[in-house]
Amino acid sequence: xxAIVETGVKQLExxxxxxxxxxADEVLMKVRANGLCTNDIRDYLGDTAYSFPRVxxxxxxxxxxxxxxxxxxxxxxxxxxxxxxxxxxxxxxxYCKIGRENLCEEIYTSPTFQNPEGISGFWGLAxxxxxxSKDLYKFPKETPFTHSAFTEPxxxxxxxxxxxxxxxxxxxxxxxxxxxxxxxxxxxxxxxxRVILSEPNEARRKLAEQLGADVVFDPMARDAVAFVKEQTExxGADVVFNTTALPAxxxxxxxxxxxxxxxxxxxxxxxxxxxxxxxxxIHSLEKVITGTVSPTIxxxxxxxxxxxxxxVDITPLLDKVYDYEDAVEAxxxxxxxxxxxxxxxFD
Length: 347
Description:
Blueprint: E1 2-8, E2 11-16, E3 26-35, H1 38-45, E4 59-67, E5 81-84, H2 94-97, E6 128-132, E7 136-139, H3 145-148, H4 151-164, E8 171-175, H5 179-190, E9 194-198, H6 202-210, E10 215-217, H7 224-231, E11 237-242, H8 247-256, E12 257-265, H9 279-285, E13 288-291, H10 297-308, E14 318-323, H11 327-334, E15 341-345
Parallel strand pairs: 8-9, 8-11, 9-10, 11-12, 12-13, 14-15
Antiparallel strand pairs: 1-2, 3-4, 3-6, 3-15, 4-5, 5-7
């Protein structure tokens, strides 16, 4: 099979690798589409601690081409269109047992991230992958592969928004109008809240309005905190989702938050510098600051339902599609700060 292999920093090779042999409880999945995530770009730039060589890609969709003998035919058959829950959770630790598989103790020591004896990675940038049937989710065949490939990133946002327990009529601020910020807008609107977006790019602000944002503004053109307070009768936002990676904006996100409000650090920080915090104000104003990372099994399933049933239309977020043979061009395009989702496809 063909695979896009990262052999070093900004080094991609199309290599011939053995097609996986499936076990009795697995299916052979032919990957048809894979979205490039910010983390894929960081891998490409060497801005992660994951081992090379590496076959990245964790936002993938495809179809079943072979089924192991123990896979229940009532659930999965050859030809089914599927996606995979990609978190390499052990299923046995404390966090897995309480339904927080995304915090599994074994994730970052697994071969997905560190594989000194071979190739690390999620393998979404390969033509075929062996998948345990328990990790599979089925899509209607009329759903394009380029759309079902959004399942994992949308599932991250489902996890984020559900944890906020947003109430009808609340004011919610989303910082950043990239793909993840725009998906926050779409899901928050389903919760019946008013959405404010902070985003310097005009095209993204316009798209955010089309997707339901009630108020958009350029934080570079005004006092951003003062503007949000003007929009909220002086209080600030009840819920703030920071989808940007800059530590300075993470600090500012707390200032945007109203008394008794919630601040969600959705994005990882790059660079991961310490962020000074006024803990006395956190105490006296009862602000809650927390993070969200990756989907659980439950929120991944919710994401499948949202896309499969057309409740969320991710079409406006699909920017450009490349064939796997043009992988370098795809990565270079996805690096641009003004793009949305770049997809790599396999025939």
